[in-house]
Design a protein that fits this description.
The protein has 55 residues and is an alpha+beta fold. The protein has one domain. It is built from two helices and three strands. A hairpin with a 6-residue loop joins strand 2 and strand 3. The relative contact order is 0.32.
């Protein structure tokens, strides 16, 4: 996915994960994403974390 995104010109990827989903957050961190902020999602009204990876 990262290779494709670079190829088509993306400069960063954004990932959001519900706080209770610890396994997904762990995978996102292992993939090199950096934590940006905690927030409450507009649609689900659940606490989430936002991560980004610069390409």
């Amino acid at each position: 996915m990262v290779t494709y995104c670079r190829k088509v010109g993306f400069t960063k990827l954004i990932a959001c994960v519900v706080n209770k989903n610890l396994a997904s957050a762990k995978i996102i961190k292992k993939a090199g994403f950096t934590f940006i902020k905690d927030f409450i999602s507009d649609d689900l009204q659940l606490p989430e974390q936002k991560f980004e990876k610069l390409l």
